[in-house]
Each structure stands twice: as structure tokens, then as C-alpha cells.
């Protein structure tokens, strides 16, 4: 295999230092899966590096409480066996040049379909060209999700993971070319559309009031009219899917595997979790790191990603068991844990992955949960049925849905969503000059607040209302409502509202709902809702809101100085034109 | 005793609701001591309220590991016995009207001196008038510090605690009038100055480079030239004293009392602590909540308090034992602590008091320490010799010096410094309309940063310098240096510097010093120092700096929207005129 090919392969695998891919950021499109390896690994010596996230760990004693699926195990063993050979430059697995098409046989579609994820060899096609990617699977930077495509067309997946639409990736694929589809199976030179798998075909129905930002995968925000309730109804809870909604079958049979630091695995069914551990209810707000991204775009410059308004945030009561209790049962010493454990990685059934610090995972006051119910009902499929993680106080991207696996590790998750997407950089950094390793993955989020409603109240109506009693206002007024939230369990202690674009400030009333749902010993995992009435004569130009948390951090006035090209954590003061008020 | 007198007494004791005293805020002057009771207590019924902070707790079993001083115990018993009687309106202890001077005897100074803190009765004088305040001592809102004055003149203390210079306080004192000083002991109608105690007479000498903001008590900041080293030398460490520096005698004999939730007391000498507990070294930054208050004043409006520039912050390596280990030894169950314990109160030998949450006090990763050494030497007297608390990540006001006592309680400290001084309110709140209970005591602090040095480097010098190698700059440049720090152990992840008043931003280099002093499992308790070289042609108007911590919180652009009348937590972007650069 030539040097040029190797340079390409390394670049694709994210191993070529700063020249890694920028992100293809069409709103609604998805970015690449895990890159598998960080650039800094290169210096440590390629020969020791295996892209699959687990293979660097020691020998794997496997203790199955329940029986683990054979597919996963098989692939991992395959990975360990093939990886070092594949990564050695002199290895003959790679052809020096793709053969000319006419040197290869014609292949029937039915034969391709046999080389699926249940088989020992994996074929895919693109256009009318067929590839045996068996040897590539363990090296795929995105991990096992590639198995979704085998036995069929790779194209629907590359239309989602648009990073593949790139010459370097095409070149890699060509190395595995084995022949063309038999023309008898083609219609207009292509495989029939009915045979092309639709990854989203089993996605659930959604509530029609959700504001859809992308449909495949589904990303839809809660409308402002539904943000005024402390608990968001499950069907109104914003949906943030990175991929399709996996169909995991019966809830009680779903299995969670805990992989300990020595490679040992312990497996629990959801029924095991329910039966063997104390159940907790935690009311917590989840917020997408892109909430209010549209405001950063409007207030500063274009940003990459879904253009959320104020509704990529919702609150629910989550029921489940504590991760720390399950880890203790699986053999982790919570009082004197192994010092090699730094992170808890989570892997979802659809291939999504992320991690949090091990300290947070086992913190007595961290309330990290394995959740099977939401607002008193089984988890809806869009929110992780039958099992998800809840990491309160952290960006929602860490609360992995459709949870298959927890891996205790010295390293954080190598996924795209840990290593790239969910980070912020300085205003001067752009996608073409970013060094992704310069910023840590977003975990706890900064202070945030928004105005969700502005109503004008006539003086004559006001006199008889609750507001008159609360505020003592008898003149024509405007009532503003909204939410405020901070990460890390830091309580919102004050919400300042300006009726004149920041010249003067009033303190909003913090509504006491959250007192019903948590005791004094629990951190503030849920948003605060607030309300303020201001007489009409005080209004000028824009309403603004900013909140303050218990560490006395607050929000930036503008977006320019905190602009980041990914548009994450857009928490500049929320400004709403005074003219936007509706009559009551 | 008449209704008017009672109204006055309640007002003085801080019991009259919103009409409590505003703070007398001459820079350099001190505010009142503890108010002893919060307004909300009034509603709970005066009859059950005893101002001394411990008397509300249950029976006090006292288990002395070492022997406690008899004075403290005696006063507390006295307090318990007298309190309910004194607070009952019909109690005859209070004279309805002060008697005319000529009805009372003349008293020799020598006799007054006999009624000192060792005696069972306590006398003071003011001018030539003598008062027996024995009955008032247990009710003194400021606590036992009043005993400093007994046997002598009250005036030097009232010159410090200026809240006493008030008609209501004079009226209370007059109720205890017992006679006039014998004219034979007066010089020009007053007691000789040599007999008037100077509370600061035993204060230590200080380094002449410290920038003094008030001398009695000593408040002095570290000069910018000394803020460039990661560890601040002890003699350059900023000094923030609320009162005098107590002279506690031999270090090894100094005793710390732990008061448990049931009133039981356990006492340790410093020697006990050294001998019986594992020693730790923690490198941590301490910052006064008033650091950069002068910038808020200059950037917005006048603020109350010492007008610190950027030097009310320093970093040291602190040696001592963990508070959690000592509490465990004293009988606290760290795994299943008594749910009534919410706070750990700290009492200093000079009467200062403050508290932190019990969770922080026992957090395995909280690193709250009982400290007896600083930078490898015994604690200097200005920094708490022989024993202080270190509460890393919290405002320095909680790291109580000259520690006498730790009280585990359901309530936070009732001191002035917990209930009033160290809080922030909205920009619209002023001293005349503040409700002190509306804001929580400052504990963890927000993100902060400052520029400590600006040097111009000529192109010809630059070519041979480290900076040329680091930055690749060969043209005439400016090198900026500074610090950045966030509370809560949240690491500084980025420092943005603008050479043109916020139009464009550069990322400063974060210097790696802190990697030498803490391991991965420890939170970021120390500041980050940073450096940036900018070519001269990029400069325009003002340099600005803002830092970002790991929760992606940052600093406000201006001071106006975050103005608070106490001038606390002034963390607006630090701006320095471009013209301020010095030639190198």
C-alpha cells in the first residue's frame, strides 16, 4: 500500500493532526460518527493504536449476569484480531490499486443481501458497484454503526453521515471493490429503491405542535406556548435525535452491559434494574447545547447546526435507579475506586456515544440515573425507551438514550459528539482553523434564560387579577414569563428583566414549583420559571432577561464576544421587541 | 420598660424587619458584628429566641478531648440563664429612665478595670460615664467580642464597629449607667489615653510593597508586580482583616472545638491535629469578594467597601488536615450524616464568623482543610496563625482565620459577614431598599480575570527571545500577562484577549504551572496564569480580557448591568488602555 493511500487513510481516521475534517454543517444533516482516535495519539506510536474504542484495554474477562448478544462480542473479537494487521503499512489486505470493473464478476442483489450483519462477511453496494468491507468494519472510525448498512446500499447512511461524501472516503471504499451488480437486478442502472433501507422507517409518530427543525433524524423543539409549565408533558418534550430511533423490542428483555475497568462485563436486564435497586424520582431539566442557536446566528454571524429558538429545553420527572448503586453492585468500590477510572462512557443502541467524568457518575449528590420512566409513564421511544441515562446538570448530549452499555474507562468517549460537536471555541476560531482538542467537551452548562411569553393586561382587567394582588399594579401593564436554568445543579437565585433594553432592571418573581419536587439536600436540577409585570409606561425598545445562579455567574450581554462557529451555549441576554406583546 | 425603648432594642438587634441598619461604608471602616438574629425569626416568637448563636440548641453534653477554657463556658451558661428573662418586656432588669448623674457614685478607674472578662461582672466606660453591661453581654447581637472592651473604654471598639455610633445604641448603653468616673482619675475631663486599649496594638508588621487600602484593620492588596508568580510569597499575599489580629499564644496549645449537632463538643489542640490526621498540601487561590471593586465603581457607580484594584487575590500552598477527617473522628458519620446538619459554621478568635454548606465541608473532593502552614512555613499571623480554615473554590471570606470553633448546625452563621456583607443584589437595589434575605451568601465565585502586566517588546529584541519562539512574532509587539480564576474548582479553559476593545479576540497561552501542584483527581483550586503577545499594529484603544471556565461561564462585558451597591464580585472584562504599555 502506497504512502499516498496511507496519508489519506490517516486523514480519514482523524490521525493527521490539525488537518482533520471540518464538519459538514447543513442544518438537519448529520455529521460523522466517532473518529475513533485523537490526533495526539499519533505521537504515541501507530503500531499500538487500535481504532475500536475498547481494544486498547487489557484482557476481557466476561461475567454475564444475563447472556450478552453474540454479534457484539464477535465483532469485538474480530476487531482485536484484525486491527494491528490492518494498520501495518506492509499488510497485504489493501490492494495497491482498485482493479478495473471488467476484471470482477457480476453479483446478484440476493447474494449481497446474504452478506449482512448476521453473516461472517459484510458486503455493501454504492451505485452498481459492490464492496466486501469485512476487513474495514473493525477499523471504521464510526464504530459498529456501519453494520446497519451491510447487505444493502451504503448510500442512505452516507446521506446522513455526510462526512463520507468525500474523495478520501470513496478511495477507501474502492479498495474493497469486488464486482458489479448483475444488470438483471438493475432498474435504470440502479438497484430498485424498494431495496434501499430507510433507517428512519420505524421512527415513532410525534405531536404535531412540536416545531420541527429536521425530520430525518427528528429534531423538534417545544413551542413557547408549552414552555410555561414546570413539567413538560412527554409528548411536548423537545426531541433531539442524532440518528434514527432504534427499535429495541420488549423493554424488560433489553440488556444493559457494564464494562468494568479490567474488561469484565456485567449485564442487567431492565427487569433486573427495577427489581434489585432502589427507585428514585428526579425532576430535571434537559437542554440541548444548541438551544437558542438561532439567536446567536441573528445576533452575530452564521453558525453550524440546527437553528433552535428557545425550545430545545424541557423538564420532566424521571424515574429509575442510580447509576452509582448499579456500579457498586457490578463491583466498583465507591469509597476507594480504582484510580485508573476517569470516565463513564455511554453507548446507545443506535450507535450514539458520549461520556461523563467518573466522579459525576458516582457522586452521591450527582443523581446520575438509569431511567425507565418519564412523568410517571414508560419512556417514550423518542426519549430513550426502554432505558436511558439521565445526567442532571449536564448538557443533554450526555444523557444517552436507548442505553446499551456503560464503559468505565481512563478515556472519555471517542465519539464525534464527545470529541467535536459539543465544544465551544473563541470568536476568532472557525471550522477551517479549529483544533478540536483545544476545548473540553461541554458537560455542565452555563446560565441560561428566556422570555417565553409577553402579554398586555388592561388596567381594568388587572384590578381583579392575581397580578394586581401580587404586584400592586393597577395601571396598564405587561406580564412577562419565562424560564431560567443553570448547569451543575447551581440554583437560579435571581432573574433580572429590563423593559428598556438594559437601561433599568427589575427582579422577576421566581415561581415556587420546584419546591414541590426536590428536597433541601438535592441540587437544583430543574429550571426556575419566572414572572414579572411591568407598567406599560416603563417599556422602551426591547425587553431583556438575564439570570444569575448561586455562583453569581450570569449571561453575556451580546453574542459577538462569545460567538462560536458551532453555535453552542448561546446564552446572550434574550431580547424581545417591546412591540411583540399580545393583548390579554 | 416602654414600647418605644423596645422598638429601639429590636431595631438595634436587627429584629424589626426591613428597617435594619444600612451599612456604614467608609472605606477602611468596619461594619457591625453579627446581628445574632435574622428578621424572619421575629415571626417565630420572641419568647423562644436567644441571641447567642448556640443557645437555641438542645442540652449540651460536653466531651472535652482537651480542656476547654472556663471563660467561654461560663459566658454561655450565663447567656442561657439570663436570656429569656432579659427579653421579656416586664423584666425589671431595664430601668425605665436613666438616673441623673448626681444620683450615682463616683467610681475609680482601678475599680472599673477589675470588672474585666475574667470577672463575673462586666463594666465599661464612655467619656466619664460608667456602665455595668453584665446583663447586656449575653444579648449583644455581635456576640462575645464585646468582652474585649470590658474593664475599659468602649470607644476604641465603637470606632471600629461604627454601627454603634447611633442614637439607639447610646440609649441602650444608658440603661446600664451606674456612675461617673472619679474626677481624680481624669485628665481634661477624660480617662488618660494610655488606659484606652488599642485593639490593633499587637498587629504584625507587614511587607512594605503591599498596597494598603485600610490600616486599622489592615487591608492591603498584592501589587500587580507580584501577581505574576503562580505561588504568591506569604509576605506578598494580600491581607484582608475584618478586625484585629488576635494574639493566640503558642501554636501547639491553641485549641479547636468542634460542636456537633447535639451540642456535644470535642476539642483538639493543633498538636492533636498534626499528630492524629493525615496531612495534605493543597494549592489554592483565595480571592476577596471585593477584588476589582474599584473597577465597578469606575465603570458604573460608587460602591460601598474597600476599593480594591486587581490584587485582592493570591495563591499559596496550604498544609493541614482535612476537615472531613476531623469531623469523622469527632463522631460525624460521613456516609449517613444526620440530616439536620446543613451548615458548618466557623468562629475565629477575633470574633469573625462565617459558614459553608455541610456538603462542601465533608465533600471528598471539596478539599476543605484545617490549615497550619502556608508555602511550607508556619502560617503568618496575618493569615490565621496558628490555625485557619481553607475553603477552596469559595470566596475567601469563608476561609476563617485564627479558628477557634467549628459548629455543625441546621443554620448558617448569623454573622454580619454571612447575612449581609458578602451578597450581591440587582442593579436597581440600593442600601436603603435592600432586603438582605433576598440573596444567598456568596460561596462559590464566578469567573474572574485580570491583566497584570503590559510590556512592549521591540522587534530586534523579540527575535532573540522566548516569545519569538513561542509566538513566531518578529515585529514590534506587546506582551500581556495576567491571571484567570473561577470558583467551585471549575477549571479555566480559555482566556480571550482583545487588543482592540472587544472587536477581535485572541486566545492567550495558559501557563502550565498548576500542573505541578495538583493531580487529575483534584479540582482546579488555583488560578491560571496566562500570556499573550500581540503585534503592535493590531492595538486599538483598550486591551480587554475575559476568561471562560469549564462550565462555559464567562464574564460580563460591562459593569452597569451587574452593578451591586456592595461592589461584590466585580468581574466585568478587565480593560486597560493600550497607551499603558511599558517599554521592555
From TrEMBL, chains A, B:
Chemical reaction(s) catalysed: nitrite + NADP(+) + H2O = nitrate + NADPH + H(+)
SMART domains assigned to the protein according to its UniProt record, in alphabetical order: Cyt-b5
Cofactor: Mo-molybdopterin
Top-rank EC class of the record's enzyme: oxidoreductase
EC number(s) given by UniProt: 1.7.1.3
Pfam families recorded: Cyt-b5 (PF00173), Mo-co_dimer (PF03404), Oxidored_molyb (PF00174)
Record keywords: Metal-binding, Molybdenum, Oxidoreductase
Domain Cytochrome b5 heme-binding: 104-182
Protein name: Nitrate reductase [NADPH]
Organism: Rachicladosporium monterosium
